């Protein structure tokens, strides 16, 4: 019994991992999104990176006409970011982010948008370049904003 549970969990996680590599606006979702609650950023130990991703996503959405909800119960959609890989290498002067960003409809939790995106930066400085947070957010949300403006 325990083995069946473990195997079904592994299969579900494998399917979820494969499904998360999609990179598109979900077809058929017609309800416009005006207000978004930025739920969370996770998957990495650098709190500055996670907070930076959440803050930059909010700033980008506001600058493109979306409102940010302060209450998770009164919003059109939830935004979540999961970092897959990220690093800052001061010795090589490079930094990198690969993360999945997805947006769920708040009424039924269907996926509105699901994208995995990579951004890198290089440059000098004692600590190397900062994480390319702005570049990542602009790249990963560009299709979502374009689709919502249709």
Give a written overview of the molecule.
- This protein has 150 residues and is α/β, with parallel strands linked by helices.
- The protein has a single domain, classed as Rossmann fold (3-Layer(aba) Sandwich).
- It is 34% helix and 33% strand.
- A 6-stranded mixed β-sheet has the order 1-6-5-4-2-3, with helices on one face.
- Helix 2 packs parallel to helix 3.
- The radius of gyration is 17 Å and the shape is elongated.
Helix content: 25-40%
Using the 3D structure, state the CATH architecture. 3-Layer(aba) Sandwich
Strand content: 25-35%
Derived structural class: alpha/beta
User: Tell me, what is the CATH class?
Assistant: Alpha Beta
Give the end-to-end Cα distance, rounded to a whole number of Å.
50 Å
Number of helices: 3
Fourth-tier CATH superfamily name: ABC-type transport auxiliary lipoprotein component
Overall tally of domains: 1
Low-confidence stretches: 1-23
The number of distinct β-strands equals 6
Would you give the CATH topology? Rossmann fold
Strand order of the largest sheet: 1-6-5-4-2-3
Radius of gyration over alpha carbons?
A: 17 Å
User: What's the rounded overall pLDDT mean?
Assistant: 82
**Sheet with the most strands?**
6 strands, mixed
Order of helices and strands: HEEHEEEEH
Instruction: Give the overall form.
Output: elongated
């Amino acid at each position: 019994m325990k083995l069946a549970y473990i195997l079904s969990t592994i299969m579900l996680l494998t399917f979820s991992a494969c499904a998360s590599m999609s990179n598109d606006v979900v077809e058929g979702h017609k309800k416009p999104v005006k207000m978004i609650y930025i739920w969370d950023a996770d998957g990495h130990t650098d709190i500055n990176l996670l907070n930076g991703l959440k803050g930059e996503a909010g700033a980008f959405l506001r600058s493109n006409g979306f409102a940010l909800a302060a209450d998770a119960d009164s919003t059109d959609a939830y935004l979540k970011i999961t970092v897959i890989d990220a690093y800052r290498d001061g010795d090589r002067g490079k930094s990198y982010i690969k993360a999945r960003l997805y947006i769920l409809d708040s009424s039924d939790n269907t996926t509105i948008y699901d994208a995995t995106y990579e951004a890198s930066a290089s440059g000098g400085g004692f600590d190397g370049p900062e994480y390319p947070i702005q570049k990542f957010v602009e790249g990963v949300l560009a299709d979502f904003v374009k689709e919502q403006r249709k």
